[in-house]
């Protein structure tokens, strides 16, 4: 649908007034997507929940935002079948890193962003819901970035005053998804 682009361009997506395009990801067809919000909510759902649409369509609702909250990004979580045939996160060395505007950070196991039903195994949610808590925030702080990294990665942090520092991902504390994190 995006192959024959002419010089004047083509319509890629219908964006409603007040919305903006935040992310575009290439997926395998069986991955999980995670949408995070500045207010600390996150929803993880199978990409098959977002049905195929025409190129110029507006899409479907990924997360139901609370008043004053906004989406900060979307993450593709590659999935692969386990020996039982269930889809599981592919790399156990991958973590979700959460960083707040005021410099707090943490790493959390990717599978903590699944829900536990009363009976059965952990599962992803359905798209369009409120999500689950992905981090604690306060009035003067909010989640700025959430992304996937491996324990062997390094993180370069830049402050608004021009300071740069490097943190090894394995040095970040592994915390529960609802934790605030520690000062970086």
If you had to describe this structure to a student in words, what would you say it looks like?
The radius of gyration is 18 Å and the shape is globular. The strands form 4 sheets. It has a 4-stranded antiparallel β-sheet with strand order 3-1-2-8, with no helix packed on it. It has a 4-stranded antiparallel β-sheet with strand order 9-6-7-12, with no helix packed on it. It is built from no helices and 12 strands. The chain has strands at about 30-35, 40-45, 70-75, 80, 85-90, 95-100, 105-110, 130-135, 145-150, 155-160, 165-170, 180-184. With about 180 residues, the protein is mostly beta strands.
Kindly state the mean pLDDT as a whole number?
83
Structural class: mainly beta
The low-confidence runs, each spanning 5 or more residues with pLDDT under 50, are none
Beta-strand portion reads 25-35%
